[in-house]
Specification:
Chain lengths: 294, 689
């Protein structure tokens, strides 16, 4: 097996692999979000009876993880490769291992392990059981069977596979410093993203106007609630606002203006929005779509 | 005789749950079999990363036939009662017999039940047991199936006497196949009997028995270490965990780069253990941690493990870079300058910030230091700094290094060595097997830290309940008890509680309730602690219920003296005499509606035995008090022992309930005197036996 030599090779390999498994290959969602799970293709599609198989790259923003471009593997903006399979196929672990072989990690040469790691997102009211997948002691994937999203039981259960792309690429390319990754044959990761990490770290920690952020949070919350009121509920636009509120909260955290006690209250407010959006989605045509089995 | 082999093959089971699940499976099976009258010769449960297995040897092929006679209602009983009996026995009225008894004619039912085939019984009970297995956390996975398991279940092997036991559970039908190692074997394996099963798995690179895996790892790490002239730093918890992470454990050795070797060894070990589950090695001659570690893989790699070792070394390098970063960064800010940051950390909603907590600990530590002869200023300084390391990056990353890091940072800041040690040791004892601090400064801070938690949480009504102890108060007070007893510290619990509550503005009633609550809670734990040493809990009650004993060392000394006394002949007899006296008093006091209080009329003691007891009591009462005051508990017991003869003589010679009412009253007063004398030492009515 040839190894995926560059960062973009890795993405292309995964895209091709999961397309072959019958996944819709979607594109990143155009909202700032903390993880690929927030993409409506996962959060909302994990609910309701309709089967759904999708894969996509999602830029993930974690303002507090910014290190001004100085840490070897911490970034405030990084890429996740997200796969959602609903219902979870019986051979989903084998499918996953197939993807690992495809990118050039041979399980006969490496030590691949599924180590307990249950996943929970308090802001989404979501939880699942699963593992982090280890390759030679390195966590390369999060693997979760969704049990609940937006406080609603998932039936059928989806399997979610999330690869941290930079970390995986560092392993495959044998690189110790994320900025040294070959993005393609000409460019290193640092040439593409280092300046962005420095500037955004400064913005996240120092420059972002907290008054504006607080206002963003309130506006998004208000708009979300308005879209879910009345006779004509708009689940998808409302969910966009929920994502925006969540990101504003993450930014406020990075600016250090939310105390420990307030933190729980803010998480509760985002969760309330997420739950209402999930319920509205289930009442919508796609959310309620019931396939005829057999 | 036939055997049962049952295997549940699933996706990876969390290591921490495996052993418990095997025990539960065995327990539930034993219960279900015995409920159905199925005896067996042996049972053993196994667990591992992907399977739970149960092997039962020597089961009968069939249940025994049952033949029993049941007695029913009388022939002339109400129709409903007879109907009920028919329903219970499953018979018709014609099938009942009538038998005459002295009370009249009654219906008798003869019940004959043929024993069922064991295989059929098993097919019924196994799915029930599996549904009952209590996983700490379980999940759904199959559309339309609500049954839960720890992770998706792939197959069930159930074979009785070589034949499949047919049933289905969680949408999986039982069969006779299993699978081997995820990567080192291929395809299904057919198995019918346990002896083939274990061997077939071994061939397929699966070690069934967790103990065997642990032994392979232990020996593997030991010999790998030996090759490098090193030895394993034993770690039972880690060994158990990694035994649950590999079906075919293979030990490899990796190296730690020199640049990390000046980081404190605890940090290296925590980094390796918590995140990576590596074993630390040390030089047997110097005892110093070595720059090598042992890792356990689940793989015999085709390249001899080169990639695996290189990969793990790289991961460790990244981890240790983080740790080294924290180590370097944290030392830039003095521990003393970190104390202020504790004001911004909420400890508990009702108890305020960590800073407020530290202020309380500091105050109490100073007071305790004064009482136990420790350096007060040092104890206060150590308490002041004790929680400052919670604000460091290192403790944020490795919470288990709290205290340990505080000590390193304190030494770096040139704090006194006793203060630095106390910062580390004030968390001790962490568990029942951990040692207690012995240095006086550390003792003062360790006691203060734990007591402040116990007292303050009880004060705001957050005491542990039967189901939960979220603030680990039981462990804290047990630590207090161990520190006090093993160091022989003379402290008043009421006094300590008062110090902690001193500045609070609560009502005096609330305050008194807290003081008593703390002491009661302590006594409950003391009983548990002493029970393990073989001390009788009723004797603790007997001494404690005299009231006002809030000095644990003295309390225990009294209890132990009492226990030794009661084991002696004199003690046992005196207790019997006491019980007799107390019983008589109880009955007569009830009848007379009054209490006897040993107002003995010395002129009304007609019998020599009366006089002897009276004289002995007067002597004992006079001597027991001073002995107790001097804490000469053995002496107090000797004084009590001297009462045995006169008490026995009294009961032999005289009739307490004399015909003369005056004499009766006087003798009851005498017995009340005995009760009062013994109650100086302990409330004998609380003593069992």
């Amino acid at each position: 097996m040839p190894k995926a030599k560059t960062f973009q090779d890795l993405i292309l390999t995964l895209q091709n692999y999961w397309a072959k498994q019958g996944c819709l290959i979607l594109q990143p969602y155009d909202n700032e979000m903390g993880a690929g799970t927030f993409h409506p293709a996962t959060t909302l599609r994990a609910l309701g009876p309709r089967p759904w198989n999708a894969a996509y790259v999602q830029p993930s923003r974690r303002p507090t993880d910014g290190r001004y471009g100085e840490n070897p593997n911490r970034l405030q903006h990084y890429y996740q490769y997200q796969v959602i399979l609903k219902p979870a196929p019986e051979n989903v672990q084998e499918l996953y291992l197939g993807s690992i072989r495809e990118i050039g990690l041979d399980p006969m040469l490496h030590d691949i392990r599924f180590v307990e790691d249950d996943w929970e997102s308090p802001t989404l009211g979501a939880a699942g059981l699963g593992w982090e997948v280890w390759c030679d002691g390195m966590e390369i994937t999060q693997f979760t069977y969704f049990q609940q999203v937006g406080g609603i039981e998932c039936d059928p259960v989806s399997a979610e596979i999330t690869y941290g792309l930079e970390r995986l690429a560092m392993y495959v390319q044998n690189v110790e410093f994320v900025y040294d990754l070959a993005f393609n044959e000409q460019f290193r990761y640092g040439e593409v993203f280092h300046q962005s990490e420095v500037e955004f770290s400064t913005y996240n920690f120092e420059r972002a106007d907290t008054e504006i952020l607080f206002q963003h949070f309130k506006d998004a919350e208000k708009q979300c609630q308005a879209l879910l009121g009345g006779n004509r509920k708009l689940a998808l636009p409302a969910y966009d606002q929920c994502i925006k509120a969540s990101h504003a909260f993450n930014m406020l955290q990075a600016r250090g203006v939310i105390s420990v006690t307030e933190r729980a209250a803010y998480i509760g407010r985002v969760r309330a929005l997420a739950q209402a959006c999930c319920q509205a989605w289930l009442d919508s045509p796609q959310g309620a779509y019931t396939p005829r089995y057999g | 005789m036939p055997e049962l082999l049952l295997e549940l093959f699933s996706e990876e089971i969390p290591a921490r749950m495996q052993a418990g699940a095997a025990r539960d499976l065995e327990r539930l099976m034993v219960g279900a079999l015995s409920d159905r009258g199925l005896l067996f010769e042996g049972i053993k449960a196994f667990s591992g990363p992907r399977r739970l297995t149960l092997a039962i040897a020597g089961l009968p092929a069939k249940q025994k036939d049952v033949r029993e006679e049941l007695k029913g209602p009388k022939v002339d009983a109400p129709a409903a009662a007879i109907e009920g009996f028919l329903k219970k026995t499953g018979l018709t009225r014609e099938q009942l017999k009538v038998e005459s008894t002295p009370k009249g004619d009654v219906y008798m039912a003869l019940i004959e039940r043929e024993g069922r085939e064991t295989a059929a019984v098993l097919a019924e009970i196994i799915p029930e047991i599996l549904a009952k297995l209590p996983w700490p956390k379980s999940m759904r996975w199959k559309p339309g199936v609500a049954t839960r398991w720890v992770r998706p279940l792939h197959s069930i092997l159930a074979s009785f006497d070589g034949e499949t036991v047919p049933f289905s559970f969680a949408g999986v039908s039982s069969g006779r196949h299993t699978r081997g190692h995820r990567f080192l074997s291929e395809g299904k394996i057919e198995v019918r009997r346990f002896e083939d099963y274990e061997a077939a798995l071994k061939k397929a690179h699966v070690i069934l028995d967790a103990e065997e895996r642990a032994a392979i790892i232990f020996e593997g790490v030991k010999s790998a270490a030996f090759v490098h002239g090193l030895e394993l730093i034993p770690d039972e918890g880690l060994l158990a965990e990694v035994s649950g992470l590999a079906e075919w454990p293979v030990v490899y050795v990796g190296s730690i780069e020199d640049q990390f070797m000046d980081v404190p060894p605890e940090i290296l070990q925590s980094s390796m253990r918590t995140h990576q589950k590596y074993f630390a090695l040390r030089d047997p001659k110097t005892g110093k941690m070595a720059n090598k570690f042992a890792l356990v893989a689940n793989m015999i790699a085709q390249d001899g493990g080169k990639e695996i070792v290189a990969g793990n070394e790289r991961v460790l390098r990244a981890r240790l870079s983080d740790a080294k970063f924290f180590w370097d960064e944290d030392r830039k800010i003095k521990l003393a300058d970190r104390v202020k940051a504790l004001e911004g950390i909420v400890f508990h909603a009702k108890l305020g910030t960590q800073a407020e907590r530290v202020a309380r600990i500091e105050k109490l530590a100073g007071e305790i230091a004064g009482k136990i002869g420790a350096d007060v200023a040092k104890a206060q300084r150590a308490a002041h700094l004790a929680k400052a390391d919670l604000t460091t990056g290192m403790v944020g990353e490795f919470p288990e290094l709290q205290g340990v890091m505080g000590r390193y940072y304190a030494l770096h800041d040139k704090e006194d060595a006793a203060i630095a040690d106390a910062i580390r040791d004030h968390y001790k004892p962490v568990g029942p097997s951990d040692e207690v601090p012995t240095d006086k400064v550390a003792i003062a801070v360790a006691l203060a830290d734990k007591l402040v938690s116990v007292i303050k949480f009880i004060d705001v009504d957050e005491r542990p309940t039967g189901s939960g102890d979220p603030f680990a108060l039981r462990r804290a007070i047990l630590g207090v008890i161990r520190i006090i007893l093993s160091n022989g510290l003379r402290l008043s619990f009421f006094g300590l509680t008062k110090i902690v509550l001193g500045a609070e503005k609560n009502s005096s009633i609330h305050r008194a309730a807290t003081e008593i609550g703390v002491l009661d809670f302590t006594m409950d734990r003391l009983k548990v602690a002493l029970k393990e040493k073989g001390t009788r809990h009723d004797l603790i009650d007997a001494v404690f219920s005299l009231g006002n004993e809030d000095d644990l060392v003295r309390l225990v000394a009294r209890v132990e003296a009492l226990q030794a006394f009661l084991k002696s002949d004199d003690g046992a007899n005196l207790l019997a005499g006491y019980k007799r006296a107390a019983n008589i008093l109880k009955a007569e006091e009830k009848r007379d509606n009054r209490t006897y209080i040993s107002e003995v009329d010395e002129k009304l003691l007609p019998d020599a035995a009366d006089k002897a007891l009276h004289a002995a009591l007067a002597k004992a009462i006079g001597a027991i008090g001073p002995a107790l005051d001097k804490e000469d508990f053995a002496g107090a017991m000797r004084e009590m022992a001297a009462l045995r003869g006169p008490v026995d003589g009294f009961f032999e010679a005289v009739k307490v309930n004399a015909d003369d009412p005056k004499l009766r009253e006087n003798r009851l007063h005498l017995l009340a005197g005995l009760r009062a004398a013994l109650h100086r030492v302990a409330d004998f009515s609380k003593i069992e036996g």
